[in-house]
């Protein structure tokens, strides 16, 4: 019946943005280059983050410290941006042979004790990570202004799915907790986080899934421990890589999921397993 047909979805278009920045590292296996780039007008503030490249062969010509210009091509369907790729990369200044990022962060390993970072949640309440010991804690990192659908929004959608899955299992729900931490304390106030959380959680009850932000002074140690990337020379850019960690009841790393390739079902199953463990 004509009345039952879904309205046609608007076709995706490709938006193009000019990018200027410094190469931090390359990852040929993932066809990625991590850039410390300037603000991209109309799209994103200054940021340190990995980008896919259209032609992975170009990575052989890039070195840490190189300054480049490039075109960023992003699919846009009228609501969200996704599948960002760099092309037309030009090295405008070569890096020094001994260039190194200010600090290279460690990768969370199973058994690592998670530091007792202190944060402020969406209600303005001070919380700290050690208070979740005795439960399985799932942590991910976002910033509310993230425009790329397959970055922070995907992490938040995955968390929403995990939240719903755990809610169907009384024991799992009582033995677990979810925490989305912003790495943009300058913008993501408790009020902003509360509004963001209500959108993704679909409710105003944050007892099982909280949104929080660290003090600016605690941001770098947190980024370092959870491998949120590399620091910029001037420490003015946001650092944006994806890191999701399952913390066991004793406050130690049980699983680390870098990137966005993990699934909600995979993580929920692991959390249930750990929650049932003695």
From TrEMBL:
InterPro entries hit by this protein: CusF_Ec, CusF_sf, SCO1/SenC, Thioredoxin-like_sf, Thioredoxin_domain
All copies of domain Thioredoxin, residue ranges: 108-276
Binding site for Cu cation: 146, 152, 240
Coiled coil: none
Highest taxon above the source species: Bacteria
Organism: Terriglobus albidus
Keywords attached to this entry: Copper, Disulfide bond, Metal-binding
Disulphide bridges: 146-152
Keyword Disulfide bond among record annotations: yes
Gene Ontology MF terms in the entry: metal ion binding
Name of the featured protein: Redoxin domain-containing protein
Transmembrane segments: none
Record family assignment: Belongs to the SCO1/2 family.
Pfam annotation, one family: SCO1-SenC
